[in-house]
Amino acid sequence: MTGAAGSGVGMRTTRAAVLRVPGQRLDICDVLLDPPGPTEILVRVDAAGVCHTDQHYMSGDLTCPLPVVVGHEGAGTVEALGAAVTRFRPGERVCLMWRPRCGECRYCLAGAPTMCERARGQAASGGLLDGASRLHLADGGDLRHLLGVSCFAQHAVVSERAAVPVPDDVPALVAAVAGCAVITGVGAVLNAVGACAGCALVVYGVGGVGLCAVMGARLAGAHPIVAVDVVPQRLAAAQEFGATHVLQADVDDVRAELERIAPGGVDVAIEAVGRPETAALAFECLRPQGLLVAVGLSHRDAVVQVPLNQLVQREKRIVGSLYGSANPLLDLPRLFDLYRAGRLPLERLLGRRYGLDEINGAYADLGAEAVGRGVILPWRQ
After folding, report:
1. How far apart are CA 227 and CA 239, in angstroms?
2. Under CATH, domain 181-323 is a member of which superfamily?
3. Which of 18, 128, 142, 168 is most buried, judging by how many CB atoms fall within 10 Å of its CB?
4. Gyration radius of the chain's alpha carbons
């Protein structure tokens, strides 16, 4: 492969899922992909997770430049390197990150790379870290990246800062979901909550991220661990991952049941649904000095209302946690090590597998309350 990025020389054709208009089905079609720029890598995508975040862009709850190749949770194999890349080699297996770190802004320097200023700019521009796109429609029209990844495709060009090596004995499907669901859910407990051994912890919403939060709570020694959802099958899965109690939100009186399980209120609540009403309920059920960690995304204009006097007089706290408040270059290798040691049973998190042409069905299943994390296999026929 030769040629400069964007020159039209050395372009390849690859299959991808394109979002053209919010609310419409994804278009599975051939797109053109530039070769990697000097500090970029070309990755053959081996697996990509079916995440609610993409659905928010697909529905219009969140906005991005369009048309766009969606997908932000993936893993694959390096096929080609930009001229200045030294961190990777062809044939190396990698996990993709939708929040790369520039290493130079105030947040990266302060050890908070999920707040990286250049990464936020990348998300807004629909390009890579330099703001430019390496994707093109077959007719030559403009096409953008989602969060610098765009892994609902057979190939992706990403910044070398958006990839982490994957050990040989970690399956591609596990590595893919680790890049978003696992680091977000487990990280919310280990990083945003911190020490919580013996603390009463409740997780609202046990889809992929919520199940990972339950795993993180068990790893951290929280007790009791309560899972709240409306889907019985998801609650059964939460028990397998370490929940000591489950509540079906459309059947049980959640507030009364939590008071019975943890008299006086819970110490920690993790809201993984992204519903203002759920976040308000989670806040109400906290004990004095309790902590609410908001993880789930919602419509861009959604607002949570909480009683101000409870915030002040009971010293309750609310924090947001993006990407598990993690340092992915450190945390992802640790998560892989915990998986390899049997401490995080991530293979049990995996749900149904789909080919790329089945992606619209995958998101229909997600809306129908599928259990576990669905995975797209772009090369599956």
Report:
1. 8
2. NAD(P)-binding Rossmann-like Domain (3.40.50.720)
3. 128
4. 21
Of all residues in the chain, what percent carry a pLDDT higher than 70?
98
Fold for the domain defined by 12-166+345-377: Quinone Oxidoreductase; Chain A, domain 1 (3.90.180)
Tokens of 103: 């290493």
pLDDT in tens, 266-325: 999 999 999 999 999 999 999 999 999 999 988 888 999 999 999 999 999 999 999 999
Report d(CA 132, CA 215) in Å as an integer.
38
pTM of the model: 0.93
Could you please report the per-residue DSSP string of 221-235? T-SSEEEEES-HHHH
Rounded to 10 degrees, what is the CA torsion of 221, 223, 224, 228? -40
Cβ-contact 310, 316 below 8 angstroms: yes
For the chain, the domains span 12-166+345-377, 181-323
Give the Cα separation of 31 and 21 in Å (integer): 17
